[in-house]
From TrEMBL:
This is TOG domain-containing protein. The lineage of its organism: Eukaryota, Metazoa, Spiralia, Gnathifera, Rotifera. One of its GO terms (molecular function) is oxidoreductase activity. Residues 32-239, 448-663 form the TOG domain. Pfam families: HEAT, HEAT_2. SMART domains: ARM, EZ_HEAT, TOG.
């Protein structure tokens, strides 16, 4: 019904209903009044709502305030404004809060000295919701109508004693400055940076940062730079932070110069902020003056400033890793301060290979001599991270001296550095330092020395090195022993002497699996052309090792010898190993004998395999049969054939099949009626009949090119096999043949 019902009487009734005890009644009354306020905000409605602000019922007063706010500037008359301003003094915090919000929504018409003063006063209200409402109202006014009266009152508020009031004023200033930054607003916010209350400073800082990011005007930049000279240290500190936040955008000659000056500020927090700001300015700040200034900050008495300087130098180096940067950085080694040296090393270490300039390396090497033990350790670690060091006489001589350092970490790092240098130029003095380190009392030093010798072993396989490594094979640390094996392995046949082989043979019985495997690998590389009797004992032990990796290495080594090093001595040792108590060893030896090849099938080898055909272990017998098959016709004498025929009746079908397969691979000597008969008798009644057909066919081919074995399915149980010649003639081959 809207406007037709909007009489004073109906409005009064609805307003009265706002205080009803029934929530449904209150809700309906409120919705009706809201509808009226939106559609037809008459003077009568406005008058009734204004009167309702004095109602004794707090719910009525609150809702009346909200309705007036809904009507906004439409009801912004002198009377309504006065009533709403008066509502800020109401005893009910809900009414005061609502009044704040209404004032904020009414725009420029309410931006009077009286309303602004009341809102600023409300910033100090005992109720937090009222304070929030007043702050929001001032911010709304500032966005909509930043009048001179509002600005004047807010400036006064910034000088007030209550921090909440100052914070609210600062937030309002921030909103105005973001919308339309002026010198007056910027100056006011910068002044607020020195407030004793952190919340005020934070609001001012955030406003300035937003302004600088959106539109870094010359006026704004100039004001922030000027703030670096402010008498208030908080202003100076925050100005530094603002410049750093903007990074390269504010990296002008003037701002950089001011920040360098701030590095000498009497307050440590300002110096810290200046370091961080310069670090955030990127490549533009990578000047000699900046690097020297921040480098000097590494010597600051305040630990936090030192840390900030270190981070800043790292950032500058990431952006501009120039020779100038590194040259200026290492100047810090001229000062006799451990903390500076350690900080420089940290920066260089993070830069890695980029820092490997001749100036840096020479400075670091020189600093090794006569410095603190911790610094020497840091320098060594830094040089290691660069992985590029030229092994000049001066460098090697310095490292030789430092190799006697009391700190084991330093000695360990020296060994690593020598290994890096040695990969390019393994000089005798360098190698001797590493050899001496093999006897170091610290196991980590010995490990590093071994590791380095391993890495340069191909060019450092001299007698001194070999002797040192042989002794190291008995080191109490298993990792040292393992590395010694690996170093000897890399030397190959250059290390092939009796002492080396004997020690490696002993190492195959080491208590540690990794050492045993490494010893075997070393033997396989060293002794192919220097085989001695002991090595076969070693292989036998390794072939029986419980660790699969050791066993695999031994097996590969054995096969390698069998294929390449077939001396009579080697064959004799293998045949001796056929008597080993481990079936795994005997099986592996049989396979190795078969891999030697027909050309080297000596009588001793054949006799050894024949004996293995009678082994108690089926796998060994099977392996012996397979080896005879690989030897082929060279092993086909009557004694071998008879031995295989006896094996055909082995209780293990797999062994029987292997024996028959071996006979089938021995050529014409085996293609006799006796052999064929034995095959038919053994397999005609088994699941291997189909295989038998193929085997017999191979033998028949040696004396009857046109003989064809018929389908194995026609084989009878009494051992008869039907054969067809090429002419079509068919005959039977039986066990009685």
């Amino acid at each position: 019904m809207g406007e037709k019902l909007a009489s004073n009487q109906s409005i009064s009734k609805l307003i009265h209903a706002l205080g009803d005890v029934d929530s449904t009644v209150r809700q309906v009354a409120c919705e009706s009044l809201v509808g009226m306020a939106r559609k037809a905000p008459t003077s009568g409605l406005m008058s009734e709502l204004i009167d309702a602000l004095d109602n004794v019922d707090p719910m009525v007063r609150k809702t009346a305030c909200q309705l007036l706010g809904t009507m906004g500037e439409k009801v912004a008359t002198g009377q309504s404004i006065s009533k709403i301003i008066d509502a800020l003094d109401n005893s009910d915090p809900m009414v005061r809060t609502t009044a704040c919000r209404v004032l904020g929504n009414m725009g420029e018409k309410l931006a009077s000295n009286q309303s602004i003063s009341k809102l600023i006063h409300a910033l100090d209200d005992v109720d937090s919701t009222v304070r929030e409402g007043a702050c929001q109202a001032l911010r709304d006014m500032a966005r909509k109508a930043p009048t001179s009266e509002l600005i004047s009152k807010l400036i006064q508020a910034l000088g007030g004693v209550d921090s909440t009031v100052r914070q609210g004023a600062c937030e309002a200033f921030g909103d105005m400055a973001r919308k339309a930054p002026t010198n007056e607003l910027i100056s006011t916010l910068i002044h607020a940076l020195g407030d004793v209350d952190s919340a005020v400073r934070q609001d001012a800082c955030e406003a300035l940062v937003d302004m600088a990011r959106k539109a870094p005007t010359n006026e704004l930049i100039s004001k922030i730079i000027d703030a670096l000279d402010d008498v208030d240290l908080m202003v100076r500190k925050t100005a530094c932070q603002l410049l750093g936040t903007m990074g390269e955008k504010l990296a002008t000659d003037r701002s950089i110069s001011k920040l360098i000056h701030a590095l000498g500020d009497v307050d440590s927090t300002v110096r810290q902020s200046a370091c961080e700001a310069l670090g955030d300015m990127g490549e533009k700040a990578a000047t000699k003056e900046v690097i020297r200034g921040v480098n000097a900050a590494l010597r600051d008495d305040n630990v936090i400033v030192c840390s900030s300087a270190m981070r800043a130098l790292k950032k500058i180096g990431d952006q501009a890793a120039t020779p100038l940067f590194f040259s200026e950085l290492v100047v810090g080694f001229q000062f006799q301060r451990v903390d500076i040296h350690l900080n420089i090393c940290k920066i260089l270490r993070k830069m890695g290979k980029k820092a490997a300039t001749s100036k840096v390396i020479s400075t670091l090497v020189s600093a090794l001599d006569g410095n603190n033990s911790d610094v020497r350790d840091a320098i060594c670690e830094t040089l290691k991270s660069m992985n590029e060091i030229e092994g000049t006489g001066q460098v090697i001589n310095t490292l030789r001296v430092v190799a006697g350092d009391e700190n084991p970490q330093v000695r360990e790092s020296v060994c690593v550095l020598l290994g890096i240098i040695g990969q390019q130029n393994a000089t005798i003095p360098l190698i001797r330092v590493l050899i001496q380190s093999l006897a170091d009392q610290n196991e980590n030093v010995r490990k590093s020395a071994c590791e380095s010798l391993k890495n340069i072993s191909r060019s450092a396989a001299g007698s001194e090195v070999i002797e040192g490594l042989v002794i190291t094979l008995r080191d109490k640390n298993f990792q040292v022993r393992m590395l010694a094996c690996e170093a000897l392995k890399n030397m190959g046949e250059k290390a092939a002497n009796a002492a080396v082989i004997n020690e490696l043979v002993n190492a195959v019985e080491d208590e540690n699996t990794d050492v045993r495997k490494s010893a075997l690998d070393a033997l396989s590389k060293i002794s192919k052309s220097a085989a001695v009797i002991g090595i076969f004992r070693t292989l036998a032990i390794a072939l029986d090792d419980e660790n699969p990796y050791v066993w695999k290495s031994a097996r590969e080594m054995l096969d390698s010898y069998a294929e390449e090093d077939t001396t009579d001595e080697f064959i004799a040792e293998l045949c001796t190993a056929l008597a080993h108590n481990s079936p795994d060893v005997r099986k592996s030896v049989c396979e190795a004998l078969g891999n030697i090849g027909a050309e080297r099938a000596t009588p001793e080898l054949i006799n050894g395999l024949m004996n293995a055909l009678q082994d108690e272990n089926a796998d060994v017998r099977n392996s012996a049969c397979a080896s005879f098959g690989r030897l082929g016709e060279k092993a086909a004498n009557a004694e071998v054939i008879n031995a295989l025929l006896l094996t055909i009746v082995d209780e293990d079908l797999d062994v029987s099949l292997s024996a028959a397969e071996a006979l089938g691979m021995m050529g014409k000597e085996v293609a006799t009626s006796k052999v064929i008969r034995e095959l038919i008798v053994r397999f005609s009644g088994t699941s291997a009949r189909k295989w038998l057909k193929n085997c017999v066919q191979k033998l028949l081919n040696f004396f009857c090119d046109t003989c064809k074995v018929e389908d194995a399915s026609i084989m009878t149980t009494n051992g008869t096999m039907n054969i067809r010649k090429g002419s079509g003639e068919q005959f039977s081959l039986t066990a009685e043949l």
